[in-house]
Amino acid sequence: MLPEEVQKPLIDVMEETKHHSKATLHLYICYSSTQEYMDAIEKSKEQCESKGEEITQEVVESNFYVPNFEPDILIRTSDEIRLSNFLIYQTKNCQINFVKNFWPDFSIWDLLKIIIEYQSKAD
Fold it and tell me: What Gene Ontology terms describe what this protein does at the molecular function level (predicted)?
């Protein structure tokens, strides 16, 4: 989906920072909450049927693309004031930032501003 020249730096950063544990940055590209739910439910159904168990909320959550993930901050670029089928379930307790920049123009300075704002509210 992404060109090689975009994939390579992302893979390099992932490899370079894989041992870090204080913070995690997730980038979702061509993502759909609806598809994630359908995939998680299907996987949960298969797991539970094979064990003769009921499907529970915990089982479904454990089968999300990133299990048991609740982000602290969500950044929505492009000046759209909606989530557009994006991490609908996981963002229930999250600070959501809507920014005017489109993704290619979103800078490290934009990110730092949002992180500092989040940290100041947490204190």
Answer: ditrans,polycis-polyprenyl diphosphate synthase [(2E,6E)-farnesyl diphosphate specific] activity
